[in-house]
Amino acid sequence: MITPQEIESLVLASLPGSKVCVEDSMGTGDHFEVTVESAAFAGKTLMEQHKIIYAILNREMNDRIHALQLKTKILK
After folding, report:
1. pTM of the entire structure?
2. Is 90 exceeded by the pLDDT of residue 76?
3. Ramachandran region of residue 27, left (φ > 0), alpha (ψ -120 to 50) or beta?
4. Domains (ranges, CATH) in the chain?
């Protein structure tokens, strides 16, 4: 199991200054809704933005995160 705070910390460590919102959508500690707003997404396609987040969470996706609903936005 992983907590929303752990996911937020992982994203912020890689994308400082971003806004991150993580919700445990099922209350089971393995299904999450994650919204990330980051200036690092400027000039990147939605697919590229999502790949950045999946790369950050790759290790946890192998065994601690079963499902991830992801929204990304460019931080203005």
Report:
1. 0.94
2. no
3. left
4. 4-74 (3.30.300.90)
